[in-house]
Amino acid sequence: MNQVMNPVYRKRLRTHRIGIALSVAAMSVGLLVLAWILATLAVKGFGALSVNMFTQTTPAPGSEGGGLMNAIVGTVMIVGLSTLISTPIGILAGIYLAEYGEENKVASLTRFVTDIMLSAPSIVIGMFVWAMYVATARHYSGYAGSIALALIAVPVVVRTTDNMLRLVPNSLLEAAFALGAPRWKVAMMVRLRAVKAGVITGVLLAVARISGETAPLLFTALNNQFFSADMNAPMANLPVVIYGYAMSPYDNWRELAWGGALLVTFSVLALNILSRTVFSQKQPN
Fold this sequence. Notes:
By secondary structure, this protein is mostly helical. It has 2 domains: about 1-45; about 50-275, MetI-like fold, CATH 1.10.3720. About 75% of the residues lie in helices and about 0% in strands. The chain is built from 13 helices and no strands. It has helices spanning about 1-5, 5-45, 50-55, 70-100, 105-120, 120-135, 140-165, 170-180, 185-195, 195-210, 215-220, 240-245, 250-275. About 35% of the residues are buried.
């Protein structure tokens, strides 16, 4: 009773309630805006979905019909190659940081660079790859786009792998060492295996992160109106096609842009749901 009548307690309780109310209000505003965006995308995007979108290439200016087949295939190839590049590099770097991160300055520098790359604007990475690869080769290509996206994905995989490996209890590692297992085998066969679901989650989150990137591909893969599976040439991709078609004066181009935006959004949403449900993993006991 005395605590309820205490003016200090009442002031703190009032402050607590105000903070909770403001937090709920901010969350509600954010959710309403997100729901508005998704509803608009669904209404206009579903109207653009058709068989032609998946079977025809992007149309020429002023022509009717067309689809996004070349852009869809190009996106899958570019993102797929960047995933193949970034996954082993990111996992091995994460293992190195978890195993030797407290023992030398190289690991500390690696972690510092990883944190910088996580916050680096994607357009800066695109310009870097353009200067180092595209300007040297004197042509745009799908390979350049994959390299740019891989540079964005690697720090995500590194940080996730490092954090997950640190969740493995020391008792499990000490038991493996007591059996005479070398350190590399403990890291690969015991520590990594214990958190493999979390590492897979990190890879899926990295794929979701790069699937909708536009700026790096503008500087590297550019675009291609026609279907092409040649990774050493300019290649169509959904983010760049959406960017160009959304601002075009042609109705069918804007319609295709809405359909492409819907495909990218729901693909990223599916990857996030997959990573947080199927491959979710709690802290190992």
